[in-house]
Amino acid sequence: AIKPAERMTGLPTQFFAKLVAKANAQMAKGRDVINLGQGNPDQPTPPHIVAKLQKAATNPLYHRYPPFSGFPFLKEAVAKRYKEDYNVDVDPATEVAILFGGKTGLVEISQCLLNPGDVCLVPDPGYPDYWSGVALAGAEMRFMPLTADRNYLPDYSAIDEETLKRAKLMFMNYPNNPTGAVATSAFYEETVAFARQSGVVVASDFAYGAIGFDSKRPISFLQTPGAKEVGVEFYTLSKSYNMAGWRVGFAIGNPQIVSLINLIQDHYYCSLFGGIQEAAAEALTGPQQCVADLNATYESRREALFGALERIGWKAERPGGSFFCWLPVPEGHTSESFADLVLQEADVVVAPGVGFGTNGEGYVRLGLLTSEARLIEAVERIGKLGLF
Ligand code: PLP
Where would I find the Aminotransferase class I/classII large domain in this sequence (predicted)? Predict the structure, then answer.
């Protein structure tokens, strides 16, 4: 038998793969399954972006290797978006790395910065891809608990001295997957102060930057004075423009970190297909009404879902951003036993909170990624189980 490298054994098992398998098994029985467990945007990419790719695909320039680190026009496009949306000045030449989706950067930054024995601070609950990069770097994770009483913001003062001495990198993610929490500028200022004091590099995962509710646009970490000295932000088109399948993202911020990420990207990917880069630039610089419309769709889905939750007596806080709802499971259940029950008895897929870390126990995550009617139906089916 082939013996994999030791670093492979540290990779977390793909939690979502397990979820998909369970959902598929239920569907194979011929059941009408409503899948609220995954984070896959359900709507198509806006047509003006698709049209750009169709045209660009015929450009022979793009049939050759793209330049290392990508085309300058795409870096300029993302810099323009940051200026317009956040009033942040970004130097496209030195402060932007083009990524093959945000995921690649989130994994690569650990390889860029962590040696074996170094510590990475990771939110719990949190997005499991942070764990993968740390594992591949042979480094260690220390979890920062995110709890409802602190609005799911970590408490830096609770990190012990020994951990602080060894910590080199931390991840944060607002709007948050899985809790739907949003950050405040005061928290980001505290984060810059913490990073300066401890020497920890900040990786801000802004994957849900375009999705904020109640007329509150999520703020970017880079709006915080000093943010670029201490870290980078990961920004992706997957959610903001319904482009998850296109695999385009960026690392923006500290030029030294950006150049390390560019270096590793050059070795792995060279860069993205030029046509995709052109379409991505169109997304960023073309009409932005699609982003506002998407936001409004998620907000009205949120309202439809929470209306239905209230009717069955399932009490929970509304998310401030992202397209996820973080709901406590009824007494007597673990997140997994509840998720299994609603799949078997109600044909509804929800993501068990424990898949996002120990602190996720006691919750399930529901995605606002289907129509209002289906969201309501899912909750009504769960309501019939009489658990609330
Ligand atoms: N970060 C978070 C918190 C996510 O939930 C996701 C996708 O689900 C990503 C990053 C990855 O985004 P991308 O599609 O750009 O790789």
Answer: 32-382
Q: How many Cα atoms sit within 13 Å of 388 on the Cβ side?
A: 20
Q: What is the pLDDT of residues 36-69, one digit of tens each?
A: 998 999 999 999 999 999 999 999 999 999 999 9
Q: Which amino acid is at 226?
A: G
**Which residues are near ligand 1 (CB < 6 Å)?**
39, 101-103, 127, 173, 177, 205, 207, 236, 238, 244, 249
pLDDT digits (tens, 9 = 90+) for 198-237: 999 999 999 999 999 999 999 999 999 999 999 999 999 9
Return the number of other C-beta atoms located less than 10 Å from residue 229's C-beta.
13
Name the residue with the closest Cα to ligand 1, atom 4.
207
Domain with CATH 3.90.1150.10 in the chain: 6-44+290-383
> From the CA of 336, how far away is ligand 1's center (Å)?
23
Architecture field, domain 6-44+290-383: Alpha-Beta Complex (3.90)
Question: Which burial class, exposed, middle or buried, applies to 212 when counting CB atoms under 10 A from its CB (0-12, 13-18, 19+)?
Answer: buried
Q: Which of 78, 107, 129, 235 to mutate to test the pocket of ligand 1 (most atoms within 8 A of CB)?
A: 129
Whole-number Å distance, alpha carbon 102 to ligand 1 midpoint, is: 6
Ligand 1 pocket test target in 19, 98, 103 with most atoms within 8 Å of CB = 103
* Residue nearest (by alpha carbon) to ligand 1 atom 12: 102
For the chain, give every residue range classified as CATH 3.40.640.10. 47-285
- Ligand 1, residue 205: give the atom nearest the CA: 1
Q: Is 0.80 topped by the overall pTM? A: yes
- Is residue 175 reached through a cis peptide bond, with omega within 30 degrees of 0 on the bond before it? yes
- Out of 1.10.10.10, 3.40.190.10, 3.40.640.10, 3.30.1330.60, select the CATH number for domain 47-285: 3.40.640.10
Rounded Cα–Cα distance for residues 358 and 341 (Å): 20
